[in-house]
Amino acid sequence: QAVVDFERLGEHAAAFQGHDVGFCCLGTTRAKAGADGFVRVDRDYVAQAAELAKAGGCKHFVLQSSRGANAQSRFLYLRVKGEVENLVQAVGFDRCTILRPAVLLCKRQESRPVEWITQQFLGAVARVFPGAYSVPVETVARAMVACVLQPGEGKVKMLENGAIHELGKA
C-alpha cells in the first residue's frame, strides 16, 4: 500500500507505476466536504488518479460510480458521477469497467441517521426484490474483482445494479 496526498497527487506518480489493473471507489459526501470538496474528491481526484494509472501502465480501470450517473443531470451528485465517468473513459484504457450500484448497504463508523434508516428499509425491500434498489458493498467488491477476471468484452463496459448483483455472486 502507498499512502498519497490527493492534494498533491502528481508527486505520487510512482505509486501508480507498474499495475495492470486499477480499482477506484473514492468518494465523499456533499455534507462532509461541501459542494466544492465533493466535486474535488469525486471527480477531480478520481480523474487525476486514472490519468496517473494510465501513464503508469494500467490496462484495465474499474470505477465505482452510481446508479443514475449523468453528466447532464441537474443534481450535483449524479452530474459529477456522470462527468467523472466521461473523464475516465477519455483517458483511453484498453478496458474500462464502470459499476453503477444503487444504494450501498454497509456499516459506517460515522453516524448518518437518515442513511441508516434508508439502509434498514432497503435491506428489508432487498429480501423481497434483491437487486432492485440496493446492493451490499461486499457484492460490489466481488463484482469488481470478477469483471477483471473475465475476458474483455469491448473497451468500455457499464454494469448497472442488477448486473453487479449477478456478477457479485460469482
UniProtKB/TrEMBL annotation:
For this protein, the record's InterPro entries field holds: NAD(P)-bd_dom, NAD(P)-bd_dom_sf
Q: Name one GO cellular component term.
A: cytoplasm
Q: Which residues form the NAD(P)-binding domain?
A: 4-151
Q: Which CDD domains match?
A: CC3_like_SDR_a (cd05250)
**An annotated GO BP:** import into nucleus
What are this entry's molecular-function GO terms?
Answer: catalytic activity
Describe the protein's quaternary organization and the partners it interacts with: Monomer. Forms homodimers during oxidative stress. Interacts (via N-terminus) with elongation factor EEF1A1 (via middle-region); the interaction is direct and competes with EEF1A1 binding to guanyl-nucleotide exchange factor EEF1B2, thereby inhibiting GDP for GTP exchange and reactivation of EEF1A1. Interacts with nuclear transport receptors XPO4, IPO5/RANBP5, IPO7, IPO9 and KPNB1 as well as GCN1L1/GCN1 and LRPPRC probably through their HEAT repeats. Binds NCOA5/CIA.
Q: What is this protein called?
A: Protein HTATIP2
Q: Which organism is it from?
A: Picathartes gymnocephalus
